[in-house]
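hey so i finally got around to running the thing on that chain from the lab meeting. sorry it took forever, my laptop kept dying and i had to restart like 3 times. anyway pasting the input first so we r on the same page abt which one it is
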Amino acid sequence: MSLTPLPIDALKKDLLAAVAKSRRVILQAPTGSGKSTRIPQFLLEAEEGNEGEIVVLQPRRLPARMLAARVASERGCRVGEEVGYQIRFDKAVSKKTRIRFVTEGILLREIMGNPRLNGIRAILFDEFHERHLYTDLTLGRTLQIQKELRPDLLLLVMSATLDGDAVQTYLAPCERLDADGRMYPVEIEYLERTPGDDYPIWETAAEAVEKAWKKTDGNVLIFMPGRYEIQKTIQEINYRMGNTALVFPLHGELPPHDQDMAVNPSEGRKIIVSTNVAETSLTIPGITMVVDGGLARIARHDPRRGINTLYVEKISHASADQRAGRAGRTAPGICLRLWTKRDHEQRPQNETPEILRVDLCETLLYLKMSGIAGVENFPWITPPDPIAIQHALQVLTDLDALDTENAAITEVGREMTTFPVHPRYARMMIAARKYGCVRAAAFAAAIVQSRNLLLGRVDGRVKQLREDLFEGAPSDFARLSRAFRYAERNGFRVEACRKLGVHADTARQIQRAHQEFIRLGDEGDAGTEATTDDGLAKCVLAAFGDNVAIRRDRGTLSCDIVHGRRGILEKDSAAADSLLFVAAEIGEIEHSGGELRVRLSLATPLEKAWLGDVHPDHLHEQVRYEYDAVQRRVTVKTETLFRDLAIESSSRDAKPSAEASACLAKEAASGSIELPEWNEAVTDWISRVNWLARNFPDYGISPIGDTEHELLLSQLCEGAVTAREVRTRSVLPAIKSWLSSPQHSLLESMAPERLMLPGGRKARIRYPENGDPIVSARIQDFYGVEGTLTLGKGQSSLIIEILGPNNRPLQTTSDLRTFWKETYPKLKPELQRKYPRHEWR
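ok and heres what got predicted. didnt touch it at all, straight out
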């Protein structure tokens, strides 16, 4: 059949030459050039007769399905025959399929069961500039397969805007092609001020369309960040413009028929209000005006829920350019950006790759399942943050997906990889099969991944209705389940839901997610299961074992949490009367002084026995000897620990033992227990020993450092269990046991405690940690002493500190001969004058 010419057609010959030369190709072509639809067909026709599929990876489900329909139409076949698609929970493929459009997660799971990618001869990475986590992971994995197993496998990276040099370096050796596009001029306009709470973005967009509608021709494409904003925009347009235009929503959760209505040609002009699914890949005919809200839902890790979620954020320059280009496909167009030019200048040039901003648990579990042990050695195009890797490894270990010794994947981890969801919910659904509560667990999983079902600010009447409805609910999930069922019984009508303060739109989202999780977890008839509260609690515990918490006592909501954290349970939680519970949501709050505290919600009460049932390897007992500062004695504390969290403890007085001695010794070393007998004589003796050991190592005397100090204290405390017993013991004899009898004799001869002076007085010798020993005495004590004084059989000089009659230093020297000859004559007159009664020679 005859096809409408597209700009990419001119590149067909060069592309096929590049493919013949190299099995790695980079293609940069503008939006609207036709690369997503024509390149797969070029490859199919060029290698006619070759077996194997051409797989086209798409970042989003909607473009995958619609591109398959477009290419199938151009090939003159039905979707699912020569051209098909495969996305989460939906596919149209057959044995005849030669071109298959898929989302990246689909191919990653296919690789686990087909590590050589048999039956696939080419993989095309479309819209690579979006840099989704799965994009990076799939490219790195297929590159490994090509290098090690399938040199014939073709890898082709395509995008309108990408860092071509970086990708070329990563894929080298490879071929690179740049194509021209067909683009009409697009006039860019900005607002004088950015919309705010006083004038919402949907009102700004509707007003702009209303003003421009009669002045322009063609269709209008409006970009909004999500379903809520799309709905509000459509309501505002209908209010302002009535029936003068057809208005269609467009987002990934719409039924296929409604998506087709928005994208396909229609009679008369129309307005499409879309998320960023229309930013790339999809070509919507007849667009001459784009109204860009400048926002998108960006995937980031949400530490509160422990999952990847979407946050509304400002888009980058690259995304804004992609959106603006939609207005210049068929004629000159206009793009109104609903933000100021100054705001635009402050926006980033490109989006941050997902690998640097999302949770890596699912990624690391996939790599472990694929036999890639050293995650840091995986060929990342952008290496992830090592801290993010360590966090993900810890979570997977907590979920029993990895063993604690070498982080190897476990049987539980292998089973988790069969679920196309975050590992937490894979673990939850595995537990649900075991405990017979698939539906209840599916609801819990759906709740955690959605926005708050209950509105926060409600009046007293609504609060009372909730209290009546929630009375007796065993957990926060049970409360939310009752609220959801209320919304369901009322058909999710907004007015009915508002009476209980329920978010109707969120309830609908939960219903869809609930059904998806049921399909994932159901191996039998989920409709006949006998759900128990205990079973559901164990499922939540399986997924959120790292959020197990215990209240410090019944009079407070303050809690200790696994991994050494502390937090506060929400005061209106169903677990408020329970000491032990698990929280599915945990949020960090910064307090005064920069201290981080956490607030726990979506809590489920627990029983100790359940911890052993669900995580038997993480429950153990620990006996610890502790010093009771009040009773001033050693106690024995026996604790039951879940990981590092003490959930049960008992204490008793310790009996004499090595552990009790060590405990007292530690307190004595820290100063908590004062030892009156640990005096200057003890510290001087230790200084002498350490000086001798340091300066004469050949004698084999061991120095006394911090460890040896504590060991000696343990010996001193032997047989004791109270501070009083230790305080009355003689210290010096115990310390002197460090040396043998011969070593004592050596110490006295090599490092004596005192020096005998000519006048008959013994002067104390100090042995500093660094430097030579020092002796201090008044000048008259050194009369008659000439030359140098030494220790250690003459091998070490002795520093002499000469004191005046007032015991203040006059001179420090190691050479008395020079002192008497040169320094003393200068000092003597002044000393005689000040101290006439003293002898001055």
